[in-house]
Design brief:
Layout: E1 5-9, E2 30-31, E3 34-35, H1 36-46, E4 51-56, H2 60-68, E5 74-79, H3 86-95, E6 103-107, E7 110-113, H4 122-129, E8 137-142, E9 147-148, E10 156-158, E11 164-166, E12 174-183, H5 199-207, E13 211-215, E14 219-222, H6 227-242
Parallel strand pairs: 1-4, 1-6, 4-5, 8-13, 9-14
Antiparallel strand pairs: 2-3, 6-12, 7-14, 8-12, 10-11, 10-12
């Protein structure tokens, strides 16, 4: 199954990245010479996505300039300059700009490297894994030993079939949420109109046994502080040398 549309969550303030984010939005901070959001956008293009909604707030004019010049995607802006909507509210607002077909949801500041050449990408595999009859959402996940820059906390326990529960409830096969989802937009038809956290829908899906995950291929990076930039770039260089 090829998914042709996506929502990229890119409106956060990046407070932990200050003072860098005093003058630049976090998604445009460069890691190994490339803005963080471009890792996400490039992954979407490689998976066959044609149109993406991207929400903006902090230093929005810089985001607009960058996105206007990004090749390969029809990018629609979900404008949150008047009020931040948090992850769930931002997604619900952005979905109104897209169709009712299945969608990728991506965080703009989390990315992965080192996918095996010659096989389907992580996003292509996630799209194939998603089964709307059994799942509300399919989450891309990663084992903590395959992360750089993470805080060391696991998010979910994963059953053999990929069903997810909160880690506190099932620590037997721990994974970290890697910032990519496949879902159908109808899931948020009942969403609040104001700001809310997407974790509300994770918990709803868990309660009905409909939250599933798939482990990514490669190495996952998150860059939350200025000090983490060097660590991420060193990891990229090291893994590239062994590729």
């Amino acid at each position: 199954m090829t998914i042709r549309q996506a929502m990229v969550l890119a409106a956060g303030l990046g407070t932990r990245m200050r003072p860098i984010t005093d003058t630049i939005p976090k998604p445009l901070v460069k890691i190994d010479g490339k803005p963080m959001i471009d890792y996400a956008l490039d992954s979407l293009v490689a998976a066959g996505v044609e149109r993406a909604a991207v929400n903006v707030h902090h230093h929005a004019h810089q985001m607009l300039d960058h996105l206007r010049n990004y090749p390969g995607l029809d990018i629609i802006i979900s404008d949150e300059r008047e009020a931040l909507m948090n992850s769930g509210g931002g997604l619900a607002k952005g979905l109104k700009l897209l169709t009712r077909e299945n969608i990728f949801v991506m965080n703009a500041d989390l990315f992965w490297i080192g996918e095996q050449p010659g096989r389907a990408t992580n996003l292509e595999r996630l799209a194939g894994f998603f089964d709307a009859a059994r799942m509300d959402m399919a989450l891309l996940c990663v084992r903590i030993e395959d992360t750089t820059g993470h805080n060391g906390k696991n998010d979910f326990g994963m059953a053999a079939d990929g069903r997810l529960t909160r880690y506190r409830d099932d620590p037997s096969n721990p994974v970290v949420y890697a910032g990519a989802i496949v879902m159908n937009p109808s899931l948020l038809d009942d969403a609040p109109q104001d700001a809310f956290n997407l974790n509300i829908y994770f918990d709803k899906a868990i309660a009905s046994g409909r939250l599933f995950g798939m482990v990514l291929d490669g190495h996952w990076l998150t860059v939350g502080t200025p000090a983490a930039i060097g660590e991420a770039e060193e990891t990229i260089r090291r893994l590239r040398a062994f590729a």
